Amino acid sequence: MERFQCGKFHMQHLFFGWDSLKARLEFKGVVAVTMDLTKLDINQCPDKAYVPNAFKGTNKCDKKSSYCVPILGRGYETGGYKCECKQGYEYPFEDQITYYDGQLVEGEFINLVDNNKTRFHTYQCRIAAGSTTYVNFMTLFVMTCLSLLQI
Asked: Residue 1: is its pLDDT beyond 70?
């Protein structure tokens, strides 16, 4: 089997072509490309529609409370991301980290699919304390009227 280096073109080694009468395409051979997949990163986070990525949007982050951030250097494995809490939500544990690791989330998702005991549903950010202001407009109206009557 012959091997060629990238960047070098060998005119005498074409792998497909027309027959001499140019009537049909003939099969001339096979090209195999080998590469170390462990050095490629999978990006499972969402991206723009025109970005070619077969894995985009396949992360298991809770879409309501968190968003996906890719972690480079994890290789050709799922879980190369972290789930960070959206604004208005917070990481519920007192840890050194403030996100859910994608490898843990992926592992618990596999347990969920296999009907094993799982903590998948605990990998969600909780609503942050004081992140929303709840106003009952009827109470506000009554309090405003009472304050105006006392003047």
From this structure: no
Q: Three-state SS string across 89-140, please? A: EECCCCCCCCEEEHHHHHHHHHHHHCCCCCCHHHCCCEECCCCCCCCCHHHH
| Phi, psi values for residue 83, rounded to 5° | -100, 110
For residues 111 and 120, is the Cβ–Cβ distance under 8 A?
yes
Give ∠ CA 84-62-50 in degrees, rounded to 5.
Answer: 80
Rg of the Cα atoms in the chain: 28
Read out DSSP for 39-75? GSPP--S---TTS--TTTT-----TTTEEEEE-TTS-
Who's near 6: CB < 8 A, 6+ residues apart?
Answer: none
Query: Smallest Cα–Cα separation from 85: which of 129, 127, 43, 130?
Result: 127
Query: Which two tokens mark 151?
Result: 């003047």
Work out the angle at residue 26's Cα, subtended by the Cα atoms of residues 20 and 27, and round it to the nearest 5 degrees: 145
Q: For residues 95 and 143, give the distance between their C-alpha atoms in angstroms, rounded to a whole number.
A: 43
pLDDT in tens, 69-113: 999 999 899 999 999 999 999 999 988 999 999 999 999 999 999
Indicate the domain borders of the chain.
37-127
